[in-house]
Amino acid sequence: MTSRPYLAVVQYDGAAFVGWQRQRDARTVQAEFEAVLERLLGRRTAATGAGRTDTGVHALGQGVGFLADGRWAEDPPGMYRALNALLPRDIWVERVTPMRPGFHARNSALARRYRYVIGTDDASRSPFRRPYEWAFGRPLDVALLARAAELLLGEHDFRGLAATGAGSGRPHYRSRVALAQWAPRTDGAGVTFTIEADRFLHRMVRFLVGAMVDIALGRRPLDDLSRLLTATDNQAASPPAPPQGLYLVAVRYPADLYAEA
Question: Which of 107, 123, 158 is the last residue of a domain?
Fold first, then answer.
């Protein structure tokens, strides 16, 4: 029976998950998604995420790839409706798109975009905001944040600004950053950091935000960021920002991999 690759663009509230990747004794987004696919397809079906988000991290545009066969292979609208009918309320599929053979949700990605949200007002400590932003509750020097973000553009070795254990097995730690930008929040309650790169190391965005916030507070000089971008380990890094302020916003794929392109 012919199988067809699909891309699901998925949103989820990460508060109740220990991350995307399946784990033996904890709730994960991947396990929830694969359980629904098994019900629909009648067999165990792997779901591959474009980004392995950590505990508490949210997604507005996670790319999830899987193979569908039978009637589902020819019914993207039906697959969309069925997934959303069966998935738990903290996961929602924005759209389902048929892809061409060879598509892989993680390996085919050209770029990923993340956003980090910080609340700088007192109300950031509200129980309705705290799970979805860094409840910082004090002003930040936006000009210093912007100057720090400019240093990230281009290709760098990020092992000094990521969680990179000796057993990580990565062939290299380089990423090419196309966008790194701080902006005031539209609600006036804080700032957001947006970054897009071809690849991200484990907790890289959170380490970057932690370092830039320390710079904005005067805890470390701006020049420290350049030194961290040439470091061979993360021993001099600032503590990473908390996970609940981080969102996987979008994943970009080559246009020719979309079956309807």
Answer: 107
Same domain, 122 and 224: yes
Active site residues: 54
Burial of 186 (0-12, 13-18, 19+ CB in 10 A): exposed
Per-residue pLDDT tens listing for the chain (261 residues): 588 999 999 999 999 999 999 999 999 999 999 999 999 999 999 999 999 999 999 999 999 999 999 999 989 999 999 999 999 999 999 999 999 999 999 999 999 999 999 999 999 999 999 999 999 999 999 999 999 999 999 999 999 999 975 445 566 899 999 999 999 999 999 999 999 999 999 999 999 999 999 999 999 999 999 999 999 999 999 999 999 999 999 999 999 999 975
Angle at 15 between CA 216 and CA 108, to 5 degrees: 80
- Cα four-point dihedral sign 122, 125, 129, 130: positive
Rounded Cα distance, 152 and 158, in Å: 10
CATH code, 17: 3.30.70.580
How many Cβ atoms are within 10 Å of 64's Cβ, its own excluded?
27
Question: Count of domains in the chain?
Answer: 2
Q: How many CA atoms lie within 13 A of 92 on its CB side?
A: 7
SS3 253: coil
**Rounded to an integer, what distance in angstroms lies between the CA atom of residue 109 and that of residue 65?**
11
Domain housing 129: 111-249
**Taken in order 147, 177, 210, 245, is the CA torsion positive or negative?**
positive
Count CA atoms closer than 13 A to 31's CA, side-chain side.
Answer: 11
Among 67, 82, 107, the domain-final residue is 107
